[in-house]
Amino acid sequence: MRSRSITVRDVDINERFEVIAWVHDIMPEKGVIVLRDPTGVREFFIKSRLLKKISITRESLIEAKGIVEKGVPVIKELKIIIKAPPKLPIDIRNPPADNPQLFGKYSYLVIRCPKYMKVLRIQQWLLYGIREFLISRGFIELLPPMISSCSDPGLRGAKKLRTKLYGEEYELMSSLIMFKQAAASALGKIFFVGRNVREEPVENLHTGRHLCEFTQIDVEWAFASIYDVMRLCEELMVYSMKFVMSKCKEELQELNPELRVPKIPFKMFTYDEVVEMLRKRGEKVVYGKELPQESETKLAEYFDEPIWIIKYPTESRGFYYIRDPEDPTKNLDFNLILPKGYGEVIDGGEREYRYDKIVERIKMMGEDPRHYGWFLELAKIGIAPSCGFGIGLERLTRYVAGLKYIWEAVPFPKIPGVAPTP
């Protein structure tokens, strides 16, 4: 039966058709049912008496046979393979993205919505383009670890999740930074596509750009400078956006027709300049701290192109950034802020690689150096100076697809404050 069927998109290739698909919508007053399969949705005409006889429901899986009359598919025979209940927990035609509790709980149904099927295709080609770019530049992709005895402490208020392995406490991966430094010391230019897990503060639900489980493309380049890597980021952004626009013309025309490839080089501001800029606009920013989420979003509303923020105060970031030799109160680090309110998408900088300086920074953060045992042992042996960054794949997808909320940019999202979910 399956081998004889065709897709809803190609139903009019022949005079006769046989389709296995889901019932996306029913319009009995028009004598129409809308069928859906992985290729999209399509309207089919059907006699009202046949529709009544079958007593069909939305989200039923059916086998339909018929003919194409003047370019219009007309169903002549219909068999229900799986009959869905008459009442569904959400409307799959228009899932409630502004209700994160329902959206997260029923994400296993949201994924059937044509809009989100398109989003996930866009995301696939974004990731493909990023991989293609990095590999063409000599970067080697490595498989990421999922648990570690220690990971990034700089989580902006988020909590780590922990488990046990052979009686020893491990953390679910919240950042691959230390692993990137170790790997770059061996292979020079590396990247991971890693899943990170952290318990975000419940209030981060309201930013629309935080997830408790997300995908980060983590890149590290041994012996590179901050400006080498920022240029690489710009070229990567341009390449991947051109790539996805060539692969997803129909999807982007529907979801985000105003999307444009940014021009490089991007504008660059220091942390000090940004703080002054925000204060002039009435934002309450505490100097020396990470920029508040709301202020960062506001900043992103002032620009139509991505912008760089560089040289954050040393006390505001993790221990892994090296101090600026021209101003030791600042780091050699950067964030890329997407325009139109989308906010941060890339975070990175030059890494501290000297054992004594790493210990000094760990203590400055109020952390116990003993917790970072394996990394400090490596630092004693020697770590290559390097620079690297991480790209939030869901954040980039949200921007490219023109989505309001980040949980629209991932299948089966884990949303701050929302549990249980699949």
List the defining traits of the structure above:
BirA Bifunctional Protein, domain 2; 18 strands; eight-stranded mixed β-sheet; 422 residues; alpha+beta
Task: Tell me the strand percentage band.
Answer: 25-35%
State mean pLDDT (0 to 100 scale). Answer: 94
User: Would you identify the CATH architecture of the largest domain?
Assistant: 2-Layer Sandwich
Radius of gyration: 25 Å
- Tell me roughly what share of residues is in helical segments: 25-40%
Strand count, sense and closure of the main sheet?
8 strands, mixed
CATH class of the largest domain: Alpha Beta
Query: How would you name the CATH homologous superfamily of the largest domain?
Result: Bira Bifunctional Protein, Domain 2
Structural class: alpha+beta
Cα distance spanning the termini: 32 Å
Number of DSSP-assigned strands = 18
As for the CATH topology of the largest domain, it is: BirA Bifunctional Protein, domain 2
- What's the number of domains? 2
One letter per element, helices H and strands E, the order comes to EEEHEEHHHEEEEHEEHHEHHEEEEEHHEH
Helix count, per DSSP?
A: 12
In which order are the strands of the major sheet placed? 6-10-11-18-17-16-13-12
* Spatial shape: elongated
Low-confidence segments, given as residue ranges, are none
What does this protein structure show overall?
The chain is 30% helix and 27% strand. It is an alpha+beta fold and 422 residues long. The protein has two domains: 16-88, Nucleic acid-binding proteins (OB fold (Dihydrolipoamide Acetyltransferase, E2P), Beta Barrel), CATH 2.40.50.140; 105-409, Bira Bifunctional Protein, Domain 2 (BirA Bifunctional Protein, domain 2), CATH 3.30.930.10. The strands form four sheets. The chain has an eight-stranded mixed sheet with strand order 6-10-11-18-17-16-13-12. It has a five-stranded mixed β-barrel with strand order 1-2-3-5-4. β2 (32-37) and β3 (40-46) form a beta hairpin. α4 (114-136) packs across α6 (226-247) and α4 (114-136) crosses α12 (393-401). It is elongated, with a radius of gyration of 25 Å. The two termini are 32 Å apart. 39% of the residues are buried.
